[in-house]
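Fill in residues.
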C-alpha cells in the first residue's frame, strides 16, 4: 500500500467509528454539555468538520509543501493560534452544529460521502493541497483528521457516558502523532516523564491549539 492508501484506510476507520458513536447520541442530548463552551451539537458538528475539510481542501492545489507532515501541521497551526483564532474555531464549531439541522446523521453521512468522493477523484495521486497549515500532501493531511476524529470521539463519549474504543490503527496513529507534535512543540521531555509516572504534564500543555 502507498502512504496515501494507508492514511486513507485509517481515516476511513476513524470516520466509521465516529458515525457509529454519533448515531448512539439521542437528538434530545444535543443541547447538553459537550466540550468547554460547546454543547454536544457543536462538538459533534466540529468533529464532522474532519469530513467537510477533506472534501473542500482536496478540491484545491498548492504550489509547494509548507507542512512536511502531520506533526508539522499541528506545530504550524499552534504557532498561528491566538485569541481571535480560538474564537473562530469555537464559532465554526457552533456553526457546524447548526448546519447539522434536524437530521444530524443524514448530514454527517453526506459529508462522509463527499469526503470519499474527493478521495476517489484523486485516483491514487498524492497531490499537494491547501490546508489551514499551508500546502500539504494528502497522505500527510489525512492523519490530522484521523487525530481529530479520534480525540473528539473520546470527548463525545466522555460527555455522554457512552462506551467507546477507537479503532486500533486510528488510536495508534493518534498516539504517535501526539508524541511527535509534543516533541516539535517542546513538550518531549514532559511527555516522557508524564507517561512514565514521574510527573504530570505542565498546566495548559497541549499538542493542538
Amino acid at each position: 500500500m502507498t502512504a496515501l492508501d494507508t492514511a486513507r484506510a485509517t481515516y476511513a476507520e476513524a470516520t466509521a467509528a465516529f458515525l457509529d458513536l454519533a448515531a448512539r447520541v439521542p437528538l434530545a442530548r444535543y443541547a447538553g454539555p459537550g466540550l468547554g463552551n460547546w454543547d454536544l451539537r457543536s462538538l459533534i458538528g466540529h468533529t464532522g468538520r474532519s469530513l467537510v475539510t477533506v472534501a473542500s481542501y482536496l478540491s484545491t492545489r498548492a504550489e509547494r509543501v509548507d507542512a512536511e507532515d502531520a506533526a508539522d501541521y499541528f506545530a504550524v497551526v499552534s504557532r498561528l493560534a491566538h485569541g481571535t483564532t480560538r474564537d473562530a474555531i469555537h464559532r465554526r464549531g457552533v456553526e457546524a452544529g447548526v448546519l447539522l439541522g434536524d437530521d444530524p446523521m443524514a448530514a454527517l453521512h453526506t459529508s462522509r460521502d463527499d469526503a470519499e468522493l474527493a478521495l476517489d477523484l484523486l485516483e491514487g495521486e498524492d497531490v499537494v493541497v491547501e490546508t489551514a497549515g499551508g500546502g500539504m500532501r494528502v497522505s500527510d493531511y489525512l492523519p490530522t483528521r484521523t487525530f481529530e476524529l479520534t480525540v473528539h470521539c473520546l470527548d463525545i463519549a466522555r460527555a455522554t457516558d457512552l462506551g467507546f474504543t477507537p479503532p486500533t490503527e486510528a488510536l495508534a496513529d493518534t498516539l504517535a502523532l501526539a508524541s511527535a507534535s509534543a516533541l516539535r512543540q517542546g513538550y518531549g521531555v514532559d511527555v516522557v516523564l508524564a507517561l512514565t509516572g514521574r510527573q504530570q504534564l505542565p498546566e495548559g500543555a497541549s499538542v493542538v491549539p
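Residues 138-160 form the longest helix (23 residues).
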